[in-house]
Design brief:
The complex is a heterodimer of chains A (about 500) and B (about 500).
Chain A (H helix, E strand, L loop, with lengths): L10 E2 L16 H9 L2 E10 L10 E12 L3 E4 L1 H4 L2 E8 L6 E9 L4 E5 L13 E2 L8 E6 L8 E15 L5 E8 L3 E2 L6 E4 L2 E9 L9 E5 H10 L13 E5 L3 H6 L9 E6 L14 E5 L2 E2 L5 E4 L2 E4 L1 H5 L6 E8 L2 E8 L19 E4 L2 E5 L2 H7 L4 H8 L14 E6 L14 E6 L2 E2 L3 H9 L4 E6 L2 E8 H15 L5 E2 L7 H10 L1
Parallel strand pairs in A: 8-14
Antiparallel strand pairs in A: 1-12, 2-3, 2-5, 3-4, 4-7, 5-6, 6-7, 9-10, 9-13, 10-11, 11-15, 13-14, 14-15, 16-17, 17-18, 18-19, 18-22, 20-21, 22-23, 24-25, 24-31, 25-26, 26-27, 27-28, 27-29, 29-30
Chain B lengths: L11 H4 L2 H4 L15 E2 L8 E8 L14 E10 L3 E4 L7 E8 L5 E10 L4 E6 L22 E7 L5 E15 L5 E8 L12 E4 L2 E10 L4 E6 H11 L12 E4 L4 H7 L8 E6 L4 H4 L7 E5 L2 E2 L5 E4 L3 E4 H7 L7 E7 L2 E7 L22 E4 L2 E5 L2 H5 L5 H4 L2 H8 L13 E6 L14 E6 L2 E2 L3 H7 L8 E5 L5 E4 L4 H12 L5 E2 L2
Classes of the chains: A alpha+beta (about 500), B alpha+beta (about 500).
């Protein structure tokens, strides 16, 4: 996405910045604000977004403006969506016309945060890092600094905390974390700016609300999510969020509760499914009742009480790291048992996630382009085919990943005399090539490297095979590469399917 | 879980005709292809106005009917005498009345035969002498490309006004329920008036077809072709209408030379590839297999695109050959190429009523089946149900339901005859926590597999450990109801929601 111009991602500004402070800020606040302002920087980003419809191309160049702020250790914190696919980032301080190059040090696409570094340390002269605060309470006033559209200079806005809840982070579109909703208008161009209360950072402004139903809705990434990111990268590597890998259903119905043998009360949820790729699948079963998670009682709507806030039980898992586990008290067959579930980052969800800083995977053979099904691929292709949409959206619910960890689609044909009769086969799912089951794009690449007179491709729902003669493909190869400017015939990097899962499932088959 | 189906005012069929309704009456448009003229004075003795009041069913609220609506068609008197109209005018009819164009004399009528796939219906007046002095039209099945046909409209005074246009194509086109039948396409700047749902199309004073849809933007008129009408009338005259024959297979072109070399069919010319043979179909019983190359049907040789040479139309799809040259129960000889040999197969096509499909393509003149189990509305998945998600239903309806509908001929559903779904929940105080459930496929109730709606009823006789256990493909996977609470829930639903009945299993 384009930094700073994405419909969902914006920042908030307060008009009353220089007027007498209200709410939490005392009379001495003006000096503090002046100090805080010096920690806020303007980002100008040039990014290159891959083109999934021409996967070998380097991609479209986009430019955008956003905000970041200095934290401890001469690091600049901003949004991941400001620095995704970045080719050049320049940072500027308020009242300093010079531009300094910044580089991405850590980027977390699942929680839309990134840490930048500026190689030229003189940039930091006169700046002081902003302190991280805590969770602001509902109805308290917050101040937002940033560089929104409508001018080049720093802008300040103010609003109140409206809601604290889970929400999908649109940068990946597949991850939900704790989010704070504030009531200031949000404008593009300001992502990554700090949201302040009592001169401490209580959040990073990151997205607004698209659609015309809601008004005065802006969202910020709260401190628990920021702190988790900063802790995760302490070892020099960002590991992603971990997950319990289950789906649960609220136990609000009395008949359901009685059928489970539960006494009346507001507690417990039922496990409806467990992701088969996760360690949880050998520990939890559909039908288990979850009573507690790490000693937090689970209410019948799936929430827990953490301090003053009721939050979704996932929040307990949200604060964990790679290699951690959670303790659960469950009821199975009317008996209470304690289990410990190791937490991992599940990969099947990635089919429904926007991905960044990766290149499109593809194979070109005989003018036929093969690409794995993914969120980015679907967005670029505008596919309306039921079969393909079903395989994307039911990938997890129907456990399609067990048989086919990566769904490969014949996505396009570069017309050439050898493939002119194959147009009707575009947007079909590849099942077999020369009798070999296709489970990943790598399988496609390997199958075409096997020597054979005919390459026979079997597509889902199409019983007539697609047949390519090796001789014809070889003759056409140079012609197609030159004619269509195919810079590369395949890219097999950036797979989401872990190698150990492939080995494991290969053995089972 | 998707949105709830939305009710729509008009059945889908009507949408095809909406461009017509926008035609501005009285607006003068130059008509280069055929200026409207007055047909011969006796023309109005061959037609009647057919006024029909229809009332469709709501599939999202299956216990109620939609608002009634009235439309008028221009029916054609055919021999019998009977009145021929398109079937869309009589779908879900509640009242049919014939009205003579000149005298405005009226008689009620009943449907004698109807085919919703071919979009044709024959009506019989309840007053047997009503059509005695009328002039039935003969059928003209010989229209060819370039012929000028007249579309008859009836003016308020009862006179017939004709607009002419040439036939610009004759091919198989989609009829309202997705079946392909022979269609004449006319190029005509038809000035569509009077909002009639059927209009006769005439060649030399004989009936050449019925207007099916008119595209005002492109000025094209799609006409149900006379050979289709002839097949329908002939079959209907036997007294027991059986429908158009269906063999149950699909084809793809086989002209790709690489494919032919791979299949070893370089020695033969033509022939079309059999892509799929429907389970339990006439084609399967006749021995046709996927991968066969069809060389000949009933003595006509088939080219690699699946066309044969029609004496009047030239190259045209074999679907017309099997549909219109044969009747249900006829024996159709096929010559196919398989494994280096030419085989002769005899296929005896039949007709599948919509109810026999896993996901019925249309349900007309019959109330939707449903069963309300303790506030959970159970139904059998059908295309009319999915169509209530709007014209973009294949993108807006829940994807797993659309997948069942679109792949019903190829996916393995075990011994299920229908896909039973929980369409939504009527909230009551006993179903708290379930109110958000919708569009879930029901797999088992009380450990019994649900193959059709009736299975849900019989499964309720044997609760599991004192509870009704309902299992779904997705969502919560399992929920429970207390059998002792079911009468209380039903009582609440009857009283609060005013439902006339909690089930329809007819």
């Amino acid at each position: 996405m384009k930094p700073g111009t994405h419909a969902l991602l914006t920042i908030i500004v307060f008009m009353s910045f220089l007027s007498p402070a209200r709410g939490h800020e005392g009379p001495a606040a003006a000096e503090d604000i002046a100090r805080v302002r010096k920690g806020v920087v303007r980002l100008s980003v040039t990014a290159q977004v891959p083109d999934y419809s021409v996967p070998w191309n380097p991609g479209r160049i986009t430019r955008g403006v956003g905000t970041g702020f200095l934290i401890s250790g001469k690091r600049i914190l901003t949004n991941a969506h400001m620095s995704s696919n970045a080719r050049f980032i320049a940072v500027q301080k308020e009242n300093d016309s010079r531009m300094y190059e910044a580089k991405v040090k850590f980027i977390a696409h699942d929680c839309d945060l990134a840490v930048l570094e500026v190689p030229d340390k003189s940039f930091f002269n006169g700046m002081s890092p902003l302190k991280l605060g805590g969770l602001p309470s509902l109805d308290s006033i917050v101040t937002v600094l940033g560089y929104p559209i409508g001018g080049r200079r720093l802008s300040v806005t103010r609003g109140i905390v409206s809601r604290i809840d889970f929400r999908t982070y649109s940068h990946s579109a597949a991850d939900s974390h704790l989010t704070i909703q504030i009531d200031a208008a949000i404008n593009p161009g300001n992502s990554g700016g700090p949201v302040l209360q009592d001169n401490s950072v209580v959040g990073v402004a990151f997205q607004g609300f698209s659609g015309d139903v809601a008004q005065n809705v802006g969202y910020m990434i709260p401190v628990p999510v920021i702190k988790r990111f900063l802790t995760d990268i302490k070892d020099g590597h960002y590991d992603r969020y971990v997950d319990l890998s289950i789906r649960q259903f609220p136990l609000l119905n009395n008949a359901y509760r009685r059928a489970m043998g539960l006494v009346p009360g507001d507690y417990g949820v039922i496990v409806s499914s467990v992701l088969k790729t996760s360690p949880a699948s050998s520990i939890l079963k559909p039908g288990d009742v979850l009573l507690t998670i790490d000693d937090f009682s689970i209410f019948s709507n799936g929430y827990v009480q953490m301090g003053d806030e009721r939050v979704r039980m996932e929040e307990v898992v949200e604060r964990k790291y790679k290699g951690d586990s959670v303790r659960l008290k469950i009821i199975r067959n009317r008996r209470e048992i304690d289990v410990t579930v190791p937490l991992v980052s599940p990969w099947p969800y990635m089919i429904q996630a926007r991905r960044h800083d990766v290149k499109p995977r593809f194979v070109v053979f005989g003018g036929l382009i093969f690409q794995p099904l993914s969120y980015d691929f679907l967005k670029a292709s505008n596919i309306k085919d039921t079969n393909i949409l079903y395989h994307c959206y039911s990938f997890i619910d129907n456990e399609l990943y067990l048989k086919t960890p990566e769904i490969v689609v014949l996505s396009k044909i570069l017309p050439d005399p050898i493939n002119v009769y194959l147009r009707g086969f575009v947007n079909s799912i590849v099942q077999k090539i020369n009798g070999k089951e296709i489970r990943t794009l790598e399988d496609v690449s390997e199958a075409f490297k096997e020597p054979a007179d005919y390459y026979v491709i079997r597509l889902m729902g199409k019983h007539r095979p697609v047949v390519l003669e090796r001789k014809a493909v070889e003759e056409a190869r140079k012609r197609i590469i030159r004619g269509y400017g195919v810079l590369k015939e395949e890219y097999l990097g950036d797979s989401v399917v872990p190698a150990d899962w492939l080995n494991l499932s290969q053995r089972k088959n | 879980m998707g949105e709830k189906p939305q009710t729509r005012k008009l059945p889908r069929l009507f949408l095809l005709l909406i461009p017509l309704l926008f035609a501005v009456e009285g607006c003068v448009v130059p008509a280069p292809s055929g200026a409207p003229g007055i047909a011969s004075p006796s023309s109005n003795l061959s037609i009647v106005r057919v006024n029909v009041t229809r009332q469709g069913y709501s599939f999202s609220r299956p216990w109620q009917q939609k608002s009634p609506s009235t439309g008028t068609a221009i029916g054609v008197i055919v021999k019998g005498p009977r009145v021929l109209v398109t079937s869309q005018i009589v779908a879900n009819h509640r009242y049919i009345e014939l009205e003579k164009a000149d005298t405005r004399e009226k008689s009620t009528a009943r449907v004698e035969a109807v085919d919703y796939e071919a979009n044709l219906a024959l009506l019989q007046p309840t007053d047997h002498r009503f059509l005695e002095d009328m002039h039935p039209l003969e059928l003209e099945t010989g229209a060819v490309l370039g012929d000028y046909l007249s579309v008859w409209q009836v003016q308020r005074n009862g006179d017939v006004a004709a607009s002419q246009g040439p036939i610009t194509s004759i091919e198989l086109a989609q009829y309202p329920y997705g079946n392909a039948f022979l269609t004449y396409r006319l190029n005509s700047s038809l000035q569509y008036r009077f909002n009639n749902l059927t209009l006769p199309v005439i060649k030399d004073g004989k009936l050449a077809g019925l207007l099916m849809r008119y595209n005002s933007k492109e000025q094209t008129v799609d006409v149900i072709a006379a050979p289709v009408i002839g097949h329908f009338i002939k079959d209907a005259s036997t007294g027991e209408y059986r429908g158009f024959p269906l063999a149950g297979f699909s084809i793809v072109p086989a002209e790709d030379p690489q494919l032919r070399r791979y299949l070893g069919i370089t020695s033969i010319t033509g022939g079309v590839y059999v892509q799929r043979v429907t389970r339990d179909s006439a084609a399967e019983r006749g021995g046709l297999r996927e991968g066969d190359i069809i060389m000949e049907i009933a003595g006509f040789s088939i080219d690699s695109r699946g066309n044969y040479d029609h004496p009047l139309y030239g190259k045209i799809s074999i679907a017309h050959l099997t549909r219109c040259n044969f009747h249900v129960g006829d024996r159709v000889p096929f010559k196919v190429f398989r494994a280096g040999k030419i085989l002769t197969l005899n296929i005896v096509p039949d007709h599948r009523p919509p109810g026999s499909y896993l996901v019925p393509p249309y349900l007309i003149d019959t109330a939707p089946r449903y069963y309300i189990l303790g506030g959970l509305i159970l139904q059998e998945l059908s295309l009319p149900y999915l169509r209530e998600f709007g014209s973009r239903w294949s993108l807006r309806a829940p994807m797993n339901l659309v997948y069942y509908a679109k792949n019903q001929n190829s996916i393995d559903v075990g011994d299920r005859e229908k896909i039973v779904i929980l369409s939504h929940v009527m909230p009551t105080s006993y179903t708290i926590g379930y109110e958000g459930l919708s569009n879930l496929v029901v797999t088992r109730i009380n450990h019994k597999t649900i193959r059709r709606l009736e299975d849900a009823v019989s499964a309720l006789e044997t609760p599991v450990n004192g509870f009704h256990k309902i299992e779904f493909e997705h969502g919560p996977k399992v929920i429970y109801l207390d059998p002792l609470e079911i009468p209380k829930i039903e009582n609440q639903i009857r009283k609060r929601y005013n439902l006339p009945a909690l089930k329809n299993l007819n």
